[in-house]
Amino acid sequence: MGISAEASTRRSTLSRVTSPARPRSVKTFYPPRGPRVAMRIELPYGRGFVSAEIPETADVTVLHPRPLKPSAPAGEIISEALESASPGLEEEPSGRVVIVVDDHTRPCPTEVMLDHVLGRLRVPRDRITVIFATGTHRPVSPDEAREILGKHHGTVEAVSHDCRGGHVYLGETSRGTPVAIDELYQTADYRILLGDVEPHYFAGYGGGRKSILPGVSSYETIQANHKMMFLPGAEVGILDGNPVSEDMEEAADMAGAEFTLNVVQNAKHEIVSAHGGHHRDVLRAGARVVDRMYKVGYDGEPADMVIVAANGYPHDVDLYQAY
Fold it and tell me: Does the pLDDT value for residue 10 go beyond 50?
């Protein structure tokens, strides 16, 4: 019996539908297996941390600052420094008082330092001005000012130094640096420097005289001083024989400061020491404590790779501050 054309078409269609599909070649790609991780290191970054995974095949040396714990609460350490300072903090200075503090690029505990300094100054608050030692940095923002000054924000006048604003010219250092200092600072009757001592990659250490140069100096003064960073001796951890630091100290002596208070902090930003008096003595006393914590020796072979953290905010706000 013959098959109609219609039936033949249906069978052909059914055959196409029910026939098993031809197998396709499927390739699966797997990522290459990396080396086994021997350790994970947490590095301070900004206000948090990033981790570095070190393979077990690597020869790793981890360098940390030497731990140094506070011997007393921060307030007691600062109070003791003020009591033993020479020259001491004058509690009833006449005329206008200026207090120079670190800007937003330094982790200085300014609020707690002001607790004790302002607490001892028997001076009307309208005769006190705080100057943020910005050097050539941008001005401190309102939010940053609140963070730096804490409870003291709004209780005294606070301004950012302007390196291109009004300055008083004082002459030249022995190295030829023209010294021009913020007019508000230079014309004040009593001047106080607040800051912290820490390693600095070409000035040797921060603190002391740096509140004046670069802190409240003109752009031209700062440039003339900082170009010495390429000279021999301009290295981290060196004061004597460091042309940048010695030039800063000479300029600070020309400008003058009636009292200096500096602190030293450990890697956890805890105050471990405080020093008051003349800016030169304060810097050297603080530097000795810094050396105990942060000068860590290494006698191994040069490394193929070095991973360094600047201990987080605010030291890593930009590449320059992170050194």
Answer: no
CB atoms within 10 A of CB 241: 12
Q: Which residue has the tokens 């800007």?
A: 103
Determine the pLDDT at residue 5.
Answer: 45
State whether residue 74 is helix, strand or coil: helix
Q: Please say whether the dihedral angle defined by the alpha carbons of residues 17, 18, 19 and 25, taken in this order, is positive or negative.
A: positive
Q: How many domains does the chain have?
A: 2
Contact 54, 37 (CB under 8 A): yes
- Examine the domain organization and report whether 56 and 83 are in the same domain: no
In a domain, 22, yes or no: no
Neighbouring CB atoms inside 10 A of 151's CB total 10
Q: For residues 253-263, give the mean pLDDT.
A: 99
* φ, ψ at 279 (rounded to 5°): -60, -35
**pTM of this structure:** 0.84
Burial of 20 from C-beta contacts in 10 A (0-12 / 13-18 / 19+): exposed
Same domain for 193 and 85? yes
Rg (CA), the chain: 31
Q: Is residue 286 part of a domain?
A: yes
- 235 pLDDT higher than 90: yes
Question: What letter does residue 88 receive in the DSSP assignment?
Answer: P
Distances (CA, A) of 306 to 52, 62, 309, 315: 12, 10, 10, 18
Q: How many CB atoms lie within 10 A of CB 57?
A: 8
